[in-house]
Write a structure and sequence with these properties.
4 strands; mainly beta; four-stranded antiparallel sheet
């Protein structure tokens, strides 16, 4: 589904959510394409060992964030790994987190 939003510029304040995707241990194998990290300036690597198969929903989220703000990921989450990419304004924050589904 496509959403048209105003392009964030130097006046952007707050956070804008771009993507949240559930991720499971078998998803990397489903894609079947190796990643060559040398082809990219930075890589957010998710080790399979960080993903659990039962009892927890694991998600990866991408958000655009201005200084002084954090992504709005929701209640009752546990952040596994989070990386802020500051090469542009606003910065991009990628978060790997778990939601307890019990």
């Amino acid at each position: 589904m496509t959403q048209h939003r105003r392009k964030p510029d130097q006046n952007f304040v707050g956070t804008a959510h771009l993507l949240a995707q559930r991720i499971a241990p078998w998803h990397a194998r489903d894609i079947g394409m190796p990643c060559d990290p040398h082809k990219y300036s930075e890589v957010f690597e998710i080790p399979v060992s960080a993903l659990r198969e039962v009892g927890v929903i694991t998600r990866v989220s991408v958000d655009v964030v201005s200084p002084g703000y954090s992504p709005n990921l929701g209640p009752d989450i546990r952040i596994i790994r989070q990386r802020e990419y500051q090469g542009a304004f606003p910065c991009i924050v990628v978060t790997l987190y778990e939601v307890d589904c019990s």
